[in-house]
Amino acid sequence: MVIKVEAIIQEEKMEDVLDALAELDVHGVTCYRLWAVERSAD
User: Which residues have C-beta within 8 Å of that of residue 27, sequence separation ≥ 6?
Assistant: First the structure.
């Protein structure tokens, strides 16, 4: 069975998330680092 989970988490919480997934016997993850850019309204 394959279940897809998508989440946006803070970088400092990544280890906690990986530890929780390991407890559920999930050992493969794909991660992307995103940056937000804010535009000012002129």
Answer: 21
In this structure, which amino acid lies at residue 41? A
Inter-residue contact 9 to 17 (CB < 8 Å): yes
Integer-rounded Cα radius of gyration of the chain? 15
Q: Which residues contact 29 (CB under 8 A, 6 or more apart)?
A: 18, 21
Taking alpha carbons only, the member of 39, 22, 17, 42 closest to residue 31 is 17
Tokens 């000012």 sit on residue: 40
Q: What is the pLDDT along the chain (42 residues), one digit of tens a residue?
A: 888 889 999 989 999 999 999 999 988 889 888 888 888 876
